[in-house]
Amino acid sequence: MARRVLLVLGFAALAGCAELLPRSRAVSLETWESYEEAKAAIDRIKPFETRRSELAAQGLEPYVNPAIEILTYSDILQRFAVGGKLDELELGIRECLAAGKACTGYQILVQRRYRNRIGGFWADSFNFRREVDITGWSFRALVLFVDDLVVYTLYGGQPRIHEQEITRNPLGPLQGWGDAIGPAVIQP
User: Fold this and answer.
1) CA 140, CA 96: separation in Å to the nearest integer?
2) Terminus-to-terminus CA distance in the chain, angstroms?
């Protein structure tokens, strides 16, 4: 009877081992919880109407939000290098490039990626087989200003990320020993 109890307890313990596998997440520190929220925030910006101070009131302020990078005129010029065909660009971009140093911008990069180790606990622990399920989303936006006035917005990204990484090591924990030792050095 004691053997059966120990056997049942052993199987119960092994069944919950997957919960012992590591999990991680990479999150940009910002206010949006989803791709749709980020998109809606950019959609609320009206070119030739919205001011930089209005964006700051909405949390789109690079000194507060680490997901926002300030772009200089030369950064913007490099992005829109079109070989002299300015008339083919949208009005906001043309106005910004024509403004010279008064043309600045925000580049916004937001991502949420969750890494969840799945699979067998023992195979993962002893490095025979490791499976990682990666989910989340990423969002990029560009906001251009002439002085304090927004003249152009653009966004894109991945509304849904779902990837899987599978690593197999037939030798398990011994697989990396050759790398740990390093290359052989032959002395003359």
Assistant:
1) 20
2) 69
